[in-house]
Amino acid sequence: xxxxxxxxHDYHLVDPSPWPxxxxxxxxxxxLGAVVWMKGLGExxxxxxxxxxxxxxxAFVLLVFLVTVTKLRDGILAGGG
Length: 81
Prior knowledge:
Radius of gyration: 20 Å
Helix content: 55-70%
CATH topology: Helix Hairpins
Largest sheet: none
Order of helices and strands: HH
Number of domains: 1
């Protein structure tokens, strides 16, 4: 049985990352929230009356995502993690 160091490939396989899906979902929620905020949907829901809460949730998650990924990348590039 070959150990991890013995495997030779012409390509590099990286571990799956959750960050692309987190970023895309938060960007979608923010865009949907912007549309709901500007246009308004429904009559008796949280989306009614041009409520900006969905936009702010998406923007907050996107901001946390960007700060987290940047800090992780900087830590890895600096050799700290």
